[in-house]
TrEMBL record, chains A, B:
Sample GO molecular function, one term: DNA-binding transcription factor activity
GO cellular component, one term: cytosol
Protein name: BadM/Rrf2 family transcriptional regulator
Length: 153, 153
DNA sequence: ATATATTAAGACCTTTTTATCTTTTATATA
DNA sequence: TATATAAAAGATAAAAAGGTCTTAATATAT
């Protein structure tokens, strides 16, 4: 019931592409990595894999970068997770039992299951573009920078 | 928003102690490790730490082992998590933002938050003994062995 | 007292995950 | 066609998590 850091980065940066990139406004790894505050060589690797998985697209050279085609836009967040982590990890039992399943429920299964269904639904029922539009209109964040408005010495 | 394997083991085995051990029925690491199907040297380490944290108790020597005192029984599951993982990990943003917080919500924050509150409540509002009694009466499992009733060649 | 069973302590190893670096390849455009 | 730019590929490194092993300490029962 948990995402790797890798798939978190992949989700956030794909949503960033959905919002900011297009076929004639491709964006480089470096820019994205800075925007959503993730390590850029690591993100580059993830993007290679997402391109192979046909979740996102890329072109090399000047003005090259990453973007989403119409087809890419039809993918959903669960496709990203599947591409990076596979589906096992997110389906695991919250307490680590070998199966997560209502017939042999762990002590928190019936609290976890509704949440799991609801978040998997969220990740499956809208495509990337719809998901992105929703989060933009609702003002959801893909990064939090400058939390540090704190007392410095 | 996730537990390490270590704290999962710790939770399951402490609940096992609550159910099966007592001051005059102490249980060895080896027996517990086999019962809930976790690696025993690893569990031994975790138990050392839980003893230091006064979550569980132990005595050495023949008929020694681990058990819960009255005081131990008053601890809750969140105390176990805090002792092994600290509290940061379970409070992290589901998508990895640097803060999980309603004023800067990630795209799934408002799905995650109610679940987080509910599971943290579950882990905090009953002590170990009460929690254990509840899961026993409801038939919740601490392990699933022998899932393999499958077709073998 | 002695033998034995069991935890405590700490060093060590392995695997997985995360992150970086270097070289090659493709592409746009000057 | 040369040059610059950006991704692809793949080797490598660092860190974290998970797991094991050996020796020491200690409590119990005989
Ligand atoms: S979450 Fe534990 S069995 Fe489903
Ligand atoms: S879960 Fe992402 S901000 Fe709360």
């Amino acid at each position: 019931m948990m995402l790797s850091r890798a798939s978190k980065y992949a989700i956030l940066s794909t949503l960033y592409l959905a919002e900011h990139a297009s076929e004639n406004r491709k964006i480089s790894v470096k820019v994205i990595a800075e925007s959503i505050d993730v390590p850029s060589p690591f993100l580059a690797k993830l993007f290679q894999q997402l391109v192979k998985g046909k979740i996102i697209s890329s072109t090399k050279g000047p003005n090259g970068g990453f973007y989403l085609t119409k087809k890419n836009q039809k993918k959903n967040v669960l496709d990203i997770i599947e591409n990076i982590d596979g589906l096992n990890r997110i389906n695991e039992c919250f307490l680590g039992l070998s199966e997560c399943d209502g017939t042999n429920p762990c002590p928190v299964h019936f609290i976890v299951e509704p949440f799991k269904n609801s978040i998997l639904g969220k990740f499956r029922d809208k495509n990337i573009m719809e998901f992105s539009q929703e989060i933009v209109s609702k003002g959801r964040k893909l990064t939090i920078k400058d939390i540090s408005t704190e007392i410095n010495s």
